[in-house]
Amino acid sequence: MADAADLRGTTSARARRWLRRTAALLAAAPMLAGLTQIPAAPAAHAESKATGSRSVDVSITSLTPTAPQKSDTLTVSGTVTNDTKGTVSGARVGLRVGPTMSGRSAIDTTAHRTGYTEGLDGTEIDGKYAKKIGKLAAGTSRDFSLSIPVDQLHLGENGVYQLGVSLTGGTSDQPWPQVLGMERTFLPWQSGPSQKKSQLTYLWPLISATHVTARTDNDEDRTPIFRDDRLAKELAPGGRLQQMVALGKNLPITWVIDPDLLATVDAMTKKYEVQTPSGNGTRAGRGQTVAKQWLDALQKAVDGKQVVALPFADPDLASLAHRGKNVTGALSHLQGATDLASTTVETILGVRPRTDFAWPVDGAVDSSIVDVATSAGAHNVIARSDSLRETGGLPYTPTAARQIGGGNTAVVADARLSTAFTGDMSKAENSTLAIQQFLAQSQMINLQAPDKQRSIVVAPQRTPTTSQAQAMAAALEGLSGQWTQPLSLGQAAKAKPDPSATQRVPSTRSYPRSLRARELPTEAFDRIQETQKTLDNFEPILTAKYRVVTPFGNAIRREMSTSWRSEAQNATVFRHDVQTYLSGLAKKVRLVPKTDMTLSGRSATVPVTVQNNLVQGVELRLVLRSQQGNRLAVSDPQLVNVEGGHSQSVKFGTTANANGPVWVSAQLYTPDGQPYGGEMMFEVNVTEITSTVILVIAGGVLLLVLAGVRIYVQRKRAAARNGEDGGDGEDAEEPHGQDEDDSEAPETDRCDPAHALVPEQPSDPAPDTGSQSAGPSGSGEKVDH
Q1: 702 FRET partner, CA 20 to 30 A, in 237, 318, 634, 734?
Q2: 652, 606 contact by CB (below 8 A)
């Protein structure tokens, strides 16, 4: 194996000696010239092969320390894989230090470059630090680990250095040593303290998808019903949210929290139910223990750190601005979500959060989004530099804060740093490169203008995976304050803006098409407002409003969540379920259908039954109207209070002025005068007193007269007998037990004037009954006078 000094370029010293011997042999034996198969310019062929070769895959899976000091030892580990069909001989892995990066764009270019290029990929460090592998058969892999004192890297001035790992070896076609595989990363080098450290704000989001339905059990505790139990896995040890809290507690970050997540986890600490996959039943949730552990850990983690609360359920601001504004009332939900955010966080975590920050999806802003975001009191909008782009030709990255008019501030997160960990970080190769690239970019910002201290904000993806969160944490730990110092988001928003930085908010037309295509549709906001209208009509009749208003109010806010962008079909189902369930509850308070009635006489009572199948009481106003008031008059409306699970019969007095059928309508109203439910119609047939009825009454009167005569005769006979028995001619005493007025009709019960006008009928039902059938009253219902 040749020295490192002999391995510069793509043609090694051994290859050159082999070419010289071959050339001499050909000169001495011309007869062999026609038989030779050796390229006329082997050196040129080797150069071409070297610059584009990816025959052996080299991956760097670990680099420590990520930002070394002069006294450290750098260790680079990884894997080499022979992707060719032949064996690589004399293989060895070496470390190469390239030139310093000239700027942030140079880092991007180097990260995407493939193959090996002489002059750009540097020279290999002393061979004694290389790893000899020998033969590497086709399709096989070998792990490697290279360790070298940092002072042997011969790093110069502060800067970002390209660091490469190459595999050198020969193939059967080209047996001389050459670079067959190359992988690059970056090595930030800071030999001394920075002149002025950049102030770095890193947002640490705790956001999840919507997990709670609008449904609750009918028990006193209003046990919530969850869509699924996936959140329990995220909270369990090793889960995404558990890792976010465990990692974040020791990092210099600003917590950004969706209060809906806190409310959901808090509900899980108690009894909760989970829908079965079919949706027809429920089972007991199993996340109580992990929910309690997670909330306890979070309370400790946020202690002493700034907490920013997003509006409840993290509403999609862009969808509201572009689609919701066309639906009357849709924007009003944002204020309620903002108000609820502070209460929720303070109640559960015991800290008072900042609620004056809005965070549109991916930091993409336009004028309409800013207007919506700031309408609910969020005077700081978290944007991103690939949306609010620099147009002034600044040679450095400016401070994040920008004044955008109206007393509002755009906090512009750096796009490169914010998207550094959006890929598949479960592969060690990807996460290692992402960490080094993040550190390199952050150092390069500082090196752009070392005499200007600037405030830099990083706003990563809303829901990092576990591996992404781990990579993010490793990058922040790697900074170690060498060229940055932590700053809270609130302080970053107050930083003095760079006067040359862009302050103009893009127009609505500039919003990315890819993001617009995933927005909530206008139909979603139509359905949301339909549900809100149903709730507004249902609420006034309830005696325990909190049992309905709170869960459905939260469900409506959840319908606008940003998380639905990745679950469009599930979002539609969720909105439909909320509306269907609420409508079903509202219909549990209704009028029991009536059939036609017959009134035999000029006045009578008409009973109407209100049924309440809710678990709480309701209060309504019931109005009975005659469609022909000149023929049938109906008494005034009545207030109705019906306990949960009961029915209440309400009696209306009627006075008939003419015979024949009259249509009557019954309508429930809320206490504030809004119609509740549909109008119920039934026919009342009024009949006069007929001759037959008069004959029956006359017969009854005759019987009463005859009975009186008989009683008189009996008394006279009794008196005569008493006289014959020796009476003195005076009237005898009444028989024992017979009152003087015994022949008179019994006194009628006293009643109030209303009842005197409209006598109660024997057939009227009891005023309050238990839960009864929802079927109509019996056919031919008749109320006799």
Answers
A1: 734
A2: yes
Confidence of residue 599 (pLDDT cuts 50, 70, 90): confident
DSSP 90: E
Contact assessment for residue 589 and residue 541, using Cβ atoms and an 8 Å cutoff? yes
Residue 520 is given by DSSP the state P
Place of tokens 């076609």: 173
CA–CA gap between residue 182 and residue 172 (Å, rounded): 20
**Six-digit token string for 774:** 């929802």
CA distances from 22 to 19, 35, 39 (A): 5, 13, 11
Contact 324, 371 (CB under 8 A): no
Average pLDDT over residues 282-292: 95
Average pLDDT score, the chain:
85
- Is it the case that residue 445 has pLDDT exceeding 60? yes
| Residue matched to tokens 């997540």 | 261
Ramachandran angles phi, psi of 413, nearest 5° = -75, 150
The dihedral built from the CA positions of residue 432, 437, 438 and 442, taken in this order, carries a sign that is positive
Secondary structure class of 382 (helix, strand, coil): strand
User: At residue 371, what is the residue type?
Assistant: D
Contact criterion met (CB below 8 Å) for 240 and 209: no
640-696, pLDDT tens digit by residue? 999 999 999 999 999 988 889 999 999 999 999 999 999 999 999 988 645 455 555
Compute the distance between CA of residue 179 and CA of residue 118 in angstroms, rounded to an integer. 10
State the Cα–Cα distance between residues 94 and 183, nearest whole angstrom.
11
Say if CB 608 and CB 652 are below 8 A apart: yes
Phi/psi for 590 (5° steps) reads -160, 170
The pairing of beta strand 141-149 with beta strand 123-124: unpaired
Bridge-based pairing state of the strands 282-284 and 273-275: antiparallel
- pLDDT over 50 (residue 44): no
* DSSP characters over 283-352: EE---HHHHHHHHHHHHHHTTTS-EEEPSTT-B-HHHHHHTGGGSTTTTHHHHHHHHHHHHHHHHHHSSP
Q: % helix / strand / coil in the chain, to the nearest 5? A: 35, 25, 40
Tell me the average pLDDT across 572-590. 96
pTM passes above 0.85: no
Residue with token string 């002999």: 6
Share of the chain above pLDDT 90, in %: 70
* 341-374 confidence digits (pLDDT tens): 999 999 999 999 999 999 999 999 999 999 999 9
Does residue 766 or residue 91 have the better pLDDT? 91
Whether 286 and 297 have beta carbons less than 8 Å apart is answered as no
Q: Check: CB of residue 246 under 8 Å from CB of residue 469.
A: no
- Nearest-Å Rg of the Cα atoms of the chain is 44
CA triplet 245, 251, 256: central angle to 5 degrees?
55
Provide the strand spans (E) within 548-700.
589-591, 597-600, 603-612, 618-626, 632-634, 638-642, 646-656, 660-669, 675-687
Would residue 363 be called left, alpha or beta, if left means φ above 0 and alpha means ψ between -120 and 50 degrees? Answer: left
Cβ proximity of 138 and 80 under 8 Å: no
Name the helix (H) or strand (E) containing 415.
Answer: helix 415-418
